[in-house]
């Protein structure tokens, strides 16, 4: 049994991670300031004596003795990370410093949840880890993108300077149950709109692409990455290489829900990446991992979750 700290553990991905780590027989400390996370996401874990929920902000130091650290704390949807952009930068940068400082003191490995956003609006397609990216340093997405890039820098410098065992994963668009209904991300927006027969809001002309990964596939990859030899640091892409246009996603959601929703077009936000698709050769080789869940199968589970959410049943 390992003792494992998960920051951002009551968020969408964090709650699935906590659940899986407990299922595998570990003790989990879930740390969260509940900015975008909800207690509801982990309430079913509270009766487990090996689960502990702590209200804490990662911009402040935290002292604990654990065997592994997963650092996920950070708002991930544009409307939330742009709500208080200065706090978003602080969360990524000071959160990484605090967690890496902890990892250094207790000699525990730390896995950093980085993002495909470090590639910005990419000129290389599909994105390989060796690509340095095309990020606007002064735009409205920069607080998130540059915060995450700096967190990667900190991981590498704590590793080179202090020998901290670090693991960097670059997560591509992930969806599934427990996404926050009003999160603003495309899958939750479209599913919730379709289920209520409301207009489906496509930003721009819908020709931009994303590659959608179901959350269970990501969790498999995260555990595999944490358990690679110390010499494997990454960064490694974790995403589903099946690429769709946003228009295709809208149509798939309408078809699967049998919705009467109409598609409407809204302005494209600034710096919205045109294309995104991971090259996952590195993960295939080093983690023996690839996503297994097709978009339709993952969407079916997500739609079922939001149906219950709208009926107040979750
Ligand atoms: P989320 O918003 O559901 O979860 C983030 C969690 O971090 C929330 O529980 C929130 O309350 C918590 N948090 C935010 N600021 C904090 C702070 N200062 N101190 C403590 N806790 C704080 O988002 P998610 O989709 O679950 O994302 C989890 C991680 O994965 C994030 O680091 C995100 O950047 C990364 N990621 C997610 C995706 C995706 O598609 N979901 C893609 C790339 C990277
Ligand atoms: N998007 C959209 N309608 C929405 C929400 C998002 O068309 O209601 C678009 C958004 O402009 C982007 C894509 O869907 O091109 C993915 O957006 P999301 O915020 O989910 O993720 P990210 O842009 O961070 O990859």
Notes on the protein architecture:
The chain has 314 residues and is α/β, with parallel strands linked by helices. It has 9 helices and 13 strands. The strands form 4 sheets. The protein has a 7-stranded parallel beta sheet, sandwiched between helices. It has a two-stranded parallel ribbon with strand order 7-10. The longest helix has 22 residues, at 85-106. It is globular and about 55 Å long. The protein starts with a strand and ends with a helix. The structure holds nicotinamide-adenine-dinucleotide and uridine-5'-diphosphate. The site of nicotinamide-adenine-dinucleotide has 28 residues, from helix 1, helix 3 and strand 5.
Q: How would you summarize what this structure contains?
A:
This protein is α/β, with parallel strands linked by helices. The chain is 37% helix and 17% strand. It has helices at residues 12-23, 78-81, 85-106, 142-162, 186-195, 215-226, 246-257, 281-287, 295-310, and strands at 3-7, 27-32, 51-55, 68-71, 110-115, 166-171, 174-175, 200-203, 209-211, 213-214, 236-238, 243-245, 263-266.
Provide the fold topology:
Elements: E1 3-7, H1 12-23, E2 27-32, E3 51-55, E4 68-71, H2 78-81, H3 85-106, E5 110-115, H4 142-162, E6 166-171, E7 174-175, H5 186-195, E8 200-203, E9 209-211, E10 213-214, H6 215-226, E11 236-238, E12 243-245, H7 246-257, E13 263-266, H8 281-287, H9 295-310
Parallel strand pairs: 1-2, 1-4, 2-3, 4-5, 5-6, 6-11, 7-10, 8-13
Antiparallel strand pairs: 9-12
The structure holds nicotinamide-adenine-dinucleotide (NAD) and uridine-5'-diphosphate.
